[in-house]
Amino acid sequence: MKDRMRCVALQHLEHDPPGLLELPLRERGWSLEVRRVDGAQSVDGAGSQGSPGRPGSAESPGRRDQPLDGLARPAVDLASQAADLAGPAVDLLLVLGGNIGAYETDRLPFLAPEIAKIGGRMRADLPVLGICLGAQLMAAALGARVYKGPSLEIGWLPVIPTAEGEADPVFPLLLRPSPVTLQWHGDTFDHPVGTVALGTSALYAAQGFRHGAWSYALQFHPEVPLADLPTWIERSEPPLTGPPATPWPSEILAGAETYYAAYEMQTHAFMHAYLEMLERGRARDGAG
């Protein structure tokens, strides 16, 4: 048996690393490997070419500068160099956000192999946790439609769990005691057949789903550190120019003063519970 549980994170954008999700992994003794999959050579500012995707979309900001944590991320060719992602050698695949569309496979050659790897893991009942773009890629991997939504959803906004979401063993921890979380997207997805719908919001019916026992797709962003919010605001494209399309930057910063403490606590509570669930599953199944 492996000495440590292993998480591999697929990162699409410099300023959206694992963030708040990393601390529970470290505290529980997991290893964490972060890989860039969009063609960038690194995200330490040395030789990084950034994403070939749109120069900024509704989900996240457009400029490609240095990462907030200063760590290099090796690029990976998912079509030929990531066989480990499809098997139990990786205990958790974490698929992070990005400013591209899951439907842009013709323009972005790395997307189809990434979607295939995600789908292979889920079909094998191996854990995947997808955040925003990651959730959309999970939906696409299961054959669901991913598309541009009718409006942007950006800022501190409530997510309401479905009845199934309330009954889920870990999802409610993201929304208790405060249902307000951070949204930053303009794309959405149809719920894949055979999954459990977990949450909804005033603007979008699809805020998350569970596939099998281990894989969770979250449309919202539970991972953003407080110190990174000014960078998200600065790099947002379209710019945050105020209603009706977007909130003002001051609204997001003011909302953080009200909501961030609970948001951070709830993210950590969810992640600890989720990782414990995976640890128990591996111990029970004798995997690895």
Q: What is the terminal-to-terminal distance? A: 5 Å
Shape: globular
CATH hierarchy class name: Alpha Beta
**Mean pLDDT reading:** 86
Task: Tell me the CATH superfamily.
Answer: Class I glutamine amidotransferase (GATase) domain
Element-level helix/strand string:
EHEEHEHEEHEEEEEHH
- Output the strand order for the largest sheet: 2-1-3-4-11-10-8
Number of domains: 1
Find the structural class using helix and strand composition. Answer: alpha/beta
Helix percentage: 25-40%
Number of strands: 11
Characterize the biggest β-sheet. 7 strands, mixed
Which CATH architecture is right? 3-Layer(aba) Sandwich
**How much of the polypeptide forms β-strand, as a percent range?**
15-25%
Structural Rg? 17 Å
- What is the fold-level CATH name, i.e. the topology? Rossmann fold
As an assembly, this protein is single chain
Number of helices: 6
Description:
With 288 residues, this protein is α/β, with parallel strands linked by helices. The chain has a single domain (6-285), classed as 3-Layer(aba) Sandwich (Rossmann fold). The chain has 6 helices and 11 strands. The protein has helices spanning 22-27, 111-123, 133-141, 163-167, 229-234, 249-285, and strands at residues 6-11, 31-36, 92-95, 128-131, 146-158, 160-161, 180-189, 196-197, 199-200, 208-211, 215-218. The strands form 3 sheets. Strands 2-1-3-4-11-10-8 form a 7-stranded mixed sheet. Strands 5-7 form a two-stranded antiparallel sheet. Strand 10 (208-211) and strand 11 (215-218) form a beta hairpin. Helix 2 (111-123) crosses helix 3 (133-141).
